[in-house]
Amino acid sequence: MDILQGFETGLATALTWHALMYCFIGVTIGTFVGVLPGIGALAAISLALPLTYYLDPTDALIMLAGIFYGAQYGGSTASILLNLPGTATAAITCLDGYPLAQQGKAPLAIFVTAINSFVGSSIAIVLVMGFAPAIAEFALEFGAEDYFSVMLLGLVAASTLTIGSPMKALSMVVFGLLLGMVGTDVNTGQFRFTFGLFELADGFSIVAVAMGLFGVAEIISNIRQPQGVIQKVGRIRLKDMMPKRGEWRQIVRPTLRGSAIGSFVGALPGTGPGIASLMAYATEKRISKTPDRFGKGALEGISAPEAANNASVQSAFIPMLSLGIPGDAIVAVLMGAMILHGITPGPNLINSEPQMFWGLIMSFWVGNLMLLVLNIPLIGLWVKLLSVPYNLLYPGILVFICVGVFSADNNVFDIFVVLGFGVLGYLMRRFGFPATPVLLGFILGPLLEENFRRAMLLSRGDASVFFTSPISAVFMGLSLIFLASVFLPSLRQRLLRRAPVEMNEDDD
Amino acid sequence: MASSPAFSFRPGPYLPGVVVILTGAAVAAGALNYPLGSVLRPGPGFFPLGLSVLLMLMGLGVLIEARATARAAPTDTPEEPFHWGALIGTVVSILAFGLSVERIGFIPATLLLFAICAAFEGGRDWRRLALAALFIAGLGTAVFLWGLGLPLSAFGGA
Asked: Which end of chain A is more exposed for a tag (fewer CB within 10 A), N or C?
């Protein structure tokens, strides 16, 4: 199926009334949780996941993906008005967004970020349409050993490209893989690490793990955080929002550069929108003729990172849809959602489920258009929402988390699982262990093991197959380079540029 | 300030690494209970055992890293306080909700969760809190009990 045909199939799917409705619900929830600091898209997606069991898988995915990119739009609003990022990925937008709000230019800043987000997303969607089918076609020839190696590469990249300690991230990947082992072994039916609990026979529920590590842990660490002071916005008139001629000129190039950086970084496994926006900001500052304007309300300082984080969110779908490898925690949950709906993401997806693949991509366009329209007139509402104090908000979120995990399996047991992972997640955060690798390992663990066993069986127990199959050898080589970078700090510096240490790499 | 009082929670820099190693060891002990199989046909114990060994090695790496950091910057950097109140409050409230929701119903369990959070928070604004609790209870009932038909009752045992 060529792209034009795909375009048609996709539009036919994305423009049905139910797809439009779920897309709308998705992007609205996404903007909502994006605006609110303290709940990220990940918690929202995990919450909505059980609700989608009753939906057609395509509609379900359209809605969940809508939450994901919708949150990127909303995230910048809190950054600009509160100096508190609504999502971790919008942290960099605070640097110049908040000064703009202090100068009374909040409407302009919000309008500009909405435009940037739209452009960034659009460019990346085009890339998804071009690259995902091509990569998938190439990947159709993969054997079990190649799959094993490409997944390994994804995991290694995800943990070595983080900002904190790579050792801690690597140990969390392994821990996540082990969590994925819990339950019934598919090959032999053996119960592993179930501690005699019947509830664990199917393993941990992905919803419970994700909501614990991200939702509950996030709440615990946010409860005592001081709240920001909202900048007064007053009545918002369209006149204040529209950039003037010179301002348009100021943002065009940064937006395009940001989109390019974001698309590239997002497609790499393990590098979320946080790193993308960071790199875009650093680039703008470096090439600017007046770098001292940055941090004092430079429009370039919000344009590039906002374009980059939205672009990276869209291009993160490339490895997931073409190879079945999630690049970050949220995509991992989306992949989990597909698996729960009985669809295995991978190179076969485009051929076996063309209607889902193209429908999802077309819904990205639809959703981004909705977001553009939704964001601009609703700024007033978001401002009101931001003034709700956190201590009224978080018990409500806890209730929804509890009843959300309950609904996944109608079992109270999962509430205790969520609690356990919440405490674990808080402790991990506190000691600098990233949570994203745990989730990636958890999702990929069973697939990694299965392909390992199959490869061993097919090679008659010869482990050298991972290095003699050419495709696998390339991936193995890349993994080794990433691993070497851990031990050669100068190489690592070059990979990561100069990243501020205080950034939290769990982009949710 | 580096000489910490006896009661404040100040784990040494090596605790995280030790915990990772111990976790790996525990998993390894568990994995040995399952058939290892052969290289040709790896059994259910093979992969977990390999991973647990890897985890122990990583823990060692974390330890070495901690040692390097401690050497490079021997002065104790001011640490973010450990939020005991927030941690315990959240744990108790979720625990209470999980244990009670099937016995006393969704709405009372929700109110209970709010009350426990508020008690740990020390918030004074009970009226707004009650309103928020009732709002969430109502919304949850509409979405989850009526909309999705979860096997929970609004009031009383399921």
From this structure: N
Bridge partners of residue A160, in order along the sequence? none
Q: How far apart are CA A280 and CA A500, in angstroms?
A: 13
CA dihedral (A370, A371, A377, A383) positive or negative: positive
User: To the nearest whole angstrom, how far is the Cα of B8 from the nearest Cα of chain A?
Assistant: 15
Q: Is B92 near chain A, with CB under 8 Å?
A: no
Residues 6+ apart with CB under 8 A from B126: B118
A280 Cβ neighbours under 8 A, 6+ residues apart: A254, A257, A258, A261, A262, A304, A305, A307, A308
Cβ A398–B117 below 8 Å, yes or no? yes
Helix A3-14, helix A354-375: angle, nearest 10:
60
Half-sphere exposure of A373 (CA within 13 A, CB side): 8
Largest distance between two CA atoms of chain B: 67
Closest CA to A168 of A473, A430, A387, A474: A430
Name the band, by pLDDT with cuts 50, 70 and 90, for residue A53.
confident
Written as six digits, the tokens of A417 are 């699982």
Q: Is B105 an interface residue toward A (CB < 8 Å)? A: no
Q: List pLDDT tens digits, range B51-71.
A: 999 999 999 988 888 887 777
* Chain position carrying tokens 């205790």: A416
From chain A residues 219-258, the ones with a CB under 8 A of any chain B CB are: 219-221, 223-224
ipTM over 0.95 threshold:
no
DSSP A192: E
Distance CA A163, CA A274 (A): 10
**CB–CB contact A398 B85 (8 Å):** no
Do A398 and A390 meet the contact criterion of CB atoms below 8 Å apart?
no
Condensed to tens digits (0 to 9), the pLDDT of residues A482-503 reads: 888 777 765 555 555 544 443 4
CA distance A441 to A46: 17
**A178, A220, A406 member nearest B90 (Cβ):** A220
Nearest of A56, A60, A55, A50 to residue A411 by alpha carbon? A50
- Residue pair A178/A439 in contact (Cβ under 8 Å)? The answer is no
| pLDDT digit string, tens, across residues A97-109 | 888 888 888 888 8
Task: Assign 3-class secondary structure to chain B.
Answer: CCCCCCCCCCCCCCHHHHHHHHHHHHHHHHHCCCCCECCCCECCCHHHHHHHHHHHHHHHHHHHHHHHHHHHCCCCCCCCCCCHHHHHHHHHHHHHHHHHHHHHCHHHHHHHHHHHHHHHHCCCCHHHHHHHHHHHHHHHHHHHHHHCCCCCCCCCCC
C-alpha count within 13 angstroms, C-beta hemisphere, residue A422 = 33
Q: Give the H/E segment covering residue A332.
A: helix A329-340
Interface test with B, best of A182, A184, A216, A399 (most B CBs within 10 A): A399
Question: In B, which residues are within 8 Å of A422 by CB distance?
Answer: 90-91, 94
Task: Give the integer Cα–Cα distance in Å for A243 and B82.
Answer: 45
Q: Does B32 touch chain A (CB under 8 A)?
A: no
- Per DSSP, A201 falls in state T
Q: Which residues of A touch B101 (CB under 8 A)?
A: 402-403, 406, 412, 415
C-alpha Rg value of chain A to the nearest Å: 22
CB A215 within 8 A of CB A42: yes
In angstroms, the CA A425 to CA B91 distance is 13
DSSP letter, residue A233: -
pLDDT (tens digit, 9 = 90+) per residue, A345-371? 888 888 888 888 888 988 998 999 998
